[in-house]
Protein backbone atom coordinates (compact mmCIF):
# COMPACT_ATOMS: atom_id res chain seq x y z
CA UNK A 1 0.00 0.00 0.00
CA UNK A 2 1.37 3.41 -0.97
CA UNK A 3 1.48 6.25 1.52
CA UNK A 4 -0.04 9.55 0.38
CA UNK A 5 2.09 12.62 1.15
CA UNK A 6 -0.04 15.79 1.18
CA UNK A 7 1.10 19.38 1.56
CA UNK A 8 -1.21 22.34 2.04
CA UNK A 9 -1.39 25.81 3.51
CA UNK A 10 -3.83 28.65 3.69
CA UNK A 11 -3.61 32.17 5.03
CA UNK A 12 -6.80 33.32 6.73
CA UNK A 13 -7.74 35.13 9.97
CA UNK A 14 -7.46 32.30 12.51
CA UNK A 15 -8.15 33.80 15.94
CA UNK A 16 -9.15 30.44 17.44
CA UNK A 17 -6.07 28.55 16.16
CA UNK A 18 -4.95 27.41 19.63
CA UNK A 19 -8.28 25.65 20.17
CA UNK A 20 -7.67 23.51 17.10
CA UNK A 21 -4.46 21.88 18.30
CA UNK A 22 -5.87 19.14 20.53
CA UNK A 23 -8.78 17.92 18.34
CA UNK A 24 -6.62 18.07 15.22
CA UNK A 25 -3.89 16.04 16.89
CA UNK A 26 -6.44 13.47 18.08
CA UNK A 27 -7.96 13.12 14.60
CA UNK A 28 -4.54 12.62 12.98
CA UNK A 29 -3.54 10.12 15.65
CA UNK A 30 -6.74 8.13 15.10
CA UNK A 31 -6.03 8.06 11.37
CA UNK A 32 -2.35 7.08 11.84
CA UNK A 33 -1.24 10.28 10.12
CA UNK A 34 2.33 11.46 10.57
CA UNK A 35 3.99 14.75 9.67
CA UNK A 36 3.84 18.37 10.82
CA UNK A 37 0.93 20.81 11.08
CA UNK A 38 1.59 24.43 12.04
CA UNK A 39 -1.18 26.65 13.36
CA UNK A 40 -0.97 30.43 13.82
CA UNK A 41 -3.26 33.43 13.89
CA UNK A 42 -2.46 33.95 10.19
CA UNK A 43 -3.42 30.45 9.01
CA UNK A 44 -2.37 26.80 8.65
CA UNK A 45 0.63 25.08 7.04
CA UNK A 46 1.15 21.32 6.86
CA UNK A 47 2.93 18.39 5.29
CA UNK A 48 1.40 15.10 6.36
CA UNK A 49 1.40 11.45 5.29
CA UNK A 50 -0.99 8.56 5.70
CA UNK A 51 -3.25 6.12 3.90
CA UNK A 52 -5.54 7.34 1.14
CA UNK A 53 -8.58 7.20 3.40
CA UNK A 54 -6.76 8.88 6.29
CA UNK A 55 -5.61 11.84 4.21
CA UNK A 56 -9.06 12.20 2.65
CA UNK A 57 -10.64 12.16 6.11
CA UNK A 58 -8.35 14.89 7.40
CA UNK A 59 -8.85 17.13 4.36
CA UNK A 60 -12.62 16.69 4.50
CA UNK A 61 -12.57 17.63 8.18
CA UNK A 62 -10.56 20.79 7.49
CA UNK A 63 -12.73 21.80 4.53
CA UNK A 64 -15.85 21.45 6.64
CA UNK A 65 -14.86 24.76 8.23
CA UNK A 66 -16.17 27.57 5.97
CA UNK A 67 -12.82 29.36 6.22
CA UNK A 68 -11.09 26.37 4.65
CA UNK A 69 -13.78 25.27 2.20
CA UNK A 70 -11.52 26.12 -0.77
CA UNK A 71 -8.34 24.62 0.73
CA UNK A 72 -6.15 23.18 -2.02
CA UNK A 73 -3.42 20.61 -1.55
CA UNK A 74 -0.64 18.86 -3.44
CA UNK A 75 0.10 15.19 -3.06
CA UNK A 76 2.47 12.44 -4.10
CA UNK A 77 2.92 8.75 -3.29
CA UNK A 78 5.65 7.20 -1.19
CA UNK A 79 6.31 3.50 -0.44
CA UNK A 80 6.55 4.25 3.29
CA UNK A 81 6.04 7.08 5.76
CA UNK A 82 8.54 9.90 5.09
CA UNK A 83 8.05 11.12 8.69
CA UNK A 84 8.76 9.43 12.01
CA UNK A 85 6.00 11.03 14.06
CA UNK A 86 3.16 13.53 14.25
CA UNK A 87 3.59 17.15 15.36
CA UNK A 88 0.85 19.78 15.66
CA UNK A 89 2.42 23.05 16.77
CA UNK A 90 1.24 26.53 17.66
CA UNK A 91 3.42 29.24 16.09
CA UNK A 92 3.62 33.02 15.71
CA UNK A 93 3.88 32.56 11.92
CA UNK A 94 3.17 29.56 9.72
CA UNK A 95 6.25 30.57 7.72
CA UNK A 96 8.72 32.83 9.49
CA UNK A 97 9.65 36.05 7.72
CA UNK A 98 9.93 38.17 10.87
CA UNK A 99 7.98 41.10 9.38
CA UNK A 100 4.84 41.58 11.53
CA UNK A 101 3.36 44.15 9.14
CA UNK A 102 3.39 41.77 6.17
CA UNK A 103 -0.04 40.17 5.82
CA UNK A 104 -0.82 37.87 2.85
CA UNK A 105 -4.47 38.07 3.88
CA UNK A 106 -4.40 41.70 2.68
CA UNK A 107 -2.29 41.52 -0.49
CA UNK A 108 -0.09 39.10 -2.44
CA UNK A 109 1.49 39.00 -5.87
CA UNK A 110 -0.11 37.70 -9.06
CA UNK A 111 -0.38 33.91 -9.25
CA UNK A 112 1.03 32.27 -12.37
CA UNK A 113 0.08 28.68 -13.21
CA UNK A 114 2.78 26.09 -14.02
CA UNK A 115 1.54 26.07 -17.63
CA UNK A 116 2.10 29.84 -17.98
CA UNK A 117 5.32 30.01 -15.97
CA UNK A 118 7.78 29.34 -18.82
CA UNK A 119 6.36 32.18 -20.88
CA UNK A 120 6.60 34.61 -17.95
CA UNK A 121 10.20 33.86 -17.00
CA UNK A 122 11.20 33.98 -20.66
CA UNK A 123 10.39 37.71 -20.66
CA UNK A 124 13.76 39.56 -20.62
CA UNK A 125 12.24 42.29 -18.44
CA UNK A 126 11.43 39.80 -15.68
CA UNK A 127 13.84 39.39 -12.75
CA UNK A 128 13.55 35.80 -11.56
CA UNK A 129 14.25 35.14 -7.87
CA UNK A 130 14.54 31.89 -5.93
CA UNK A 131 13.22 32.70 -2.44
CA UNK A 132 14.61 29.52 -0.87
CA UNK A 133 17.76 29.05 1.20
CA UNK A 134 21.27 28.33 -0.04
CA UNK A 135 21.27 24.58 0.67
CA UNK A 136 18.01 24.20 -1.27
CA UNK A 137 19.14 26.25 -4.27
CA UNK A 138 22.39 24.30 -4.55
CA UNK A 139 20.69 21.08 -5.65
CA UNK A 140 18.32 22.64 -8.17
CA UNK A 141 16.64 25.81 -9.43
CA UNK A 142 15.07 27.40 -12.49
CA UNK A 143 17.42 28.38 -15.26
CA UNK A 144 18.54 32.00 -14.88
CA UNK A 145 17.15 32.50 -11.36
CA UNK A 146 18.91 34.76 -8.88
CA UNK A 147 20.13 33.08 -5.71
CA UNK A 148 19.75 35.38 -2.66
CA UNK A 149 22.31 33.25 -0.72
CA UNK A 150 20.18 33.26 2.42
CA UNK A 151 20.50 30.81 5.31
CA UNK A 152 16.96 31.47 6.53
CA UNK A 153 13.82 33.10 5.14
CA UNK A 154 14.22 35.87 7.74
CA UNK A 155 17.16 37.16 5.69
CA UNK A 156 15.09 37.64 2.54
CA UNK A 157 13.86 41.20 3.36
CA UNK A 158 17.48 42.38 3.71
CA UNK A 159 18.30 40.82 0.33
CA UNK A 160 15.43 42.73 -1.29
CA UNK A 161 16.49 46.02 0.28
CA UNK A 162 20.14 45.67 -0.77
CA UNK A 163 19.84 44.00 -4.19
CA UNK A 164 16.52 45.05 -5.72
CA UNK A 165 14.99 48.40 -6.67
CA UNK A 166 11.40 49.04 -7.77
CA UNK A 167 12.67 51.44 -10.43
CA UNK A 168 15.33 49.08 -11.86
CA UNK A 169 13.33 45.87 -11.50
CA UNK A 170 9.79 46.64 -12.76
CA UNK A 171 8.79 42.98 -13.10
CA UNK A 172 9.74 40.35 -10.53
CA UNK A 173 8.85 36.65 -10.59
CA UNK A 174 9.41 34.48 -7.53
CA UNK A 175 9.17 30.81 -6.63
CA UNK A 176 9.65 28.45 -3.68
CA UNK A 177 9.03 24.79 -2.84
CA UNK A 178 5.26 24.76 -2.33
CA UNK A 179 4.29 28.42 -2.70
CA UNK A 180 3.94 29.50 0.92
CA UNK A 181 7.15 31.52 1.20
CA UNK A 182 6.20 33.44 -1.92
CA UNK A 183 2.91 34.48 -0.35
CA UNK A 184 4.85 36.48 2.21
CA UNK A 185 7.73 37.42 -0.10
CA UNK A 186 5.40 38.94 -2.70
CA UNK A 187 3.35 40.71 -0.01
CA UNK A 188 6.57 42.20 1.36
CA UNK A 189 7.76 43.37 -2.07
CA UNK A 190 4.44 45.02 -2.88
CA UNK A 191 4.75 46.78 0.45
CA UNK A 192 8.21 47.98 -0.64
CA UNK A 193 6.82 49.63 -3.78
CA UNK A 194 7.37 46.97 -6.44
CA UNK A 195 4.54 47.18 -8.95
CA UNK A 196 4.51 43.88 -10.89
CA UNK A 197 5.23 40.92 -8.63
CA UNK A 198 4.43 37.36 -9.74
CA UNK A 199 4.76 33.97 -8.06
CA UNK A 200 4.52 30.36 -9.20
CA UNK A 201 1.16 28.96 -8.09
CA UNK A 202 1.66 25.73 -6.17
CA UNK A 203 5.41 26.25 -6.14
CA UNK A 204 8.12 24.07 -7.64
CA UNK A 205 6.32 20.89 -6.59
CA UNK A 206 3.26 21.73 -8.67
CA UNK A 207 5.46 22.67 -11.63
CA UNK A 208 7.37 19.36 -11.43
CA UNK A 209 4.09 17.50 -11.14
CA UNK A 210 2.38 19.11 -14.14
CA UNK A 211 5.09 20.21 -16.61
CA UNK A 212 6.61 17.34 -18.62
CA UNK A 213 10.39 17.06 -18.65
CA UNK A 214 10.87 18.04 -22.34
CA UNK A 215 9.18 21.39 -21.61
CA UNK A 216 10.64 21.94 -18.16
CA UNK A 217 13.01 24.81 -17.39
CA UNK A 218 13.85 23.32 -14.01
CA UNK A 219 17.44 22.16 -13.58
CA UNK A 220 18.45 19.61 -10.94
CA UNK A 221 16.27 18.34 -8.11
CA UNK A 222 13.99 19.96 -5.54
CA UNK A 223 14.74 19.67 -1.83
CA UNK A 224 11.76 18.61 0.30
CA UNK A 225 11.43 18.68 4.06
CA UNK A 226 10.89 14.98 4.71
CA UNK A 227 12.75 11.70 4.41
CA UNK A 228 12.54 11.74 0.62
CA UNK A 229 15.15 14.57 0.72
CA UNK A 230 14.60 15.54 -2.93
CA UNK A 231 12.23 14.94 -5.84
CA UNK A 232 12.46 15.25 -9.62
CA UNK A 233 10.06 15.77 -12.53
CA UNK A 234 6.80 13.96 -11.87
CA UNK A 235 7.68 14.10 -8.14
CA UNK A 236 9.77 10.95 -8.57
CA UNK A 237 12.27 10.31 -5.73
CA UNK A 238 15.55 12.17 -6.14
CA UNK A 239 19.13 11.02 -5.70
CA UNK A 240 20.17 12.92 -2.57
CA UNK A 241 20.64 11.76 1.01
CA UNK A 242 20.91 13.91 4.13
CA UNK A 243 24.11 14.33 6.10
CA UNK A 244 23.56 13.07 9.66
CA UNK A 245 25.98 15.67 10.97
CA UNK A 246 24.81 18.96 9.46
CA UNK A 247 21.51 18.26 7.71
CA UNK A 248 22.83 19.28 4.27
CA UNK A 249 21.60 17.35 1.19
CA UNK A 250 24.48 15.22 -0.12
CA UNK A 251 25.07 13.68 -3.54
CA UNK A 252 27.03 10.59 -4.58
CA UNK A 253 29.93 12.92 -5.39
CA UNK A 254 29.82 14.27 -1.83
CA UNK A 255 30.00 10.71 -0.50
CA UNK A 256 33.14 10.10 -2.56
CA UNK A 257 34.87 13.06 -0.91
CA UNK A 258 37.62 12.37 1.68
CA UNK A 259 35.70 14.75 3.97
CA UNK A 260 32.71 12.40 4.08
CA UNK A 261 32.28 10.01 7.01
CA UNK A 262 29.12 7.92 6.91
CA UNK A 263 26.75 8.87 9.69
CA UNK A 264 29.05 11.62 10.95
CA UNK A 265 29.98 14.41 8.54
CA UNK A 266 30.19 15.55 4.90
CA UNK A 267 32.05 18.17 2.84
CA UNK A 268 29.41 20.76 3.79
CA UNK A 269 29.75 20.41 7.56
CA UNK A 270 30.76 23.72 9.09
CA UNK A 271 29.99 25.51 5.83
CA UNK A 272 26.53 26.98 5.01
CA UNK A 273 24.61 23.94 6.21
CA UNK A 274 21.23 24.30 7.93
CA UNK A 275 22.61 22.80 11.17
CA UNK A 276 26.41 23.22 11.49
CA UNK A 277 28.34 20.29 12.95
CA UNK A 278 29.76 21.26 16.34
CA UNK A 279 32.44 19.21 18.16
CA UNK A 280 29.77 18.07 20.62
CA UNK A 281 27.50 16.96 17.81
CA UNK A 282 30.37 15.14 16.09
CA UNK A 283 31.01 13.18 19.31
CA UNK A 284 27.32 12.23 19.51
CA UNK A 285 27.25 11.15 15.85
CA UNK A 286 30.37 9.03 16.34
CA UNK A 287 28.79 7.33 19.34
CA UNK A 288 25.61 6.64 17.35
CA UNK A 289 27.51 5.21 14.39
CA UNK A 290 29.67 2.81 16.42
CA UNK A 291 27.07 0.00 16.69
CA UNK A 292 26.46 -0.02 12.93
CA UNK A 293 30.19 0.12 12.22
CA UNK A 294 30.79 -2.82 14.57
CA UNK A 295 28.04 -4.79 12.82
CA UNK A 296 29.65 -4.11 9.43
CA UNK A 297 33.02 -5.33 10.76
CA UNK A 298 31.48 -8.58 12.06
CA UNK A 299 29.56 -9.12 8.82
CA UNK A 300 32.77 -8.75 6.82
CA UNK A 301 34.65 -11.37 8.86
TrEMBL record:
Enzyme class of the recorded protein, top EC level: oxidoreductase
**InterPro entries of this UniProt entry?**
Rhodanese-like_dom, Rhodanese-like_dom_sf, TrhO, TRHO_N
The record's comment on protein family reads: Belongs to the TrhO family.
Instruction: Provide this UniProt record's keywords sorted from A to Z.
Output: Oxidoreductase, tRNA processing
In its keyword annotation, does this UniProt entry include tRNA processing? Answer: yes
- HAMAP family the record matches: TrhO
- Quote the catalytic activity from the record: uridine(34) in tRNA + AH2 + O2 = 5-hydroxyuridine(34) in tRNA + A + H2O
The Enzyme Commission number assigned here is: 1.14.-.-
Q: Is the keyword Membrane in the record? A: no
Q: Which Pfam families match?
A: Rhodanese (PF00581), UPF0176_N (PF17773)
Q: Which Gene3D superfamilies does its entry note?
A: 3.30.70.100, Rhodanese-like domain
- Source taxonomy lineage? Bacteria, Bacillati, Cyanobacteriota, Cyanophyceae, Desertifilales
What is the annotated role of this protein in its UniProt record? Catalyzes oxygen-dependent 5-hydroxyuridine (ho5U) modification at position 34 in tRNAs.
Domain Rhodanese: from-to ranges: 122-216
Task: Give positions of region: Disordered.
Answer: 276-301
Q: What is this protein called?
A: tRNA uridine(34) hydroxylase
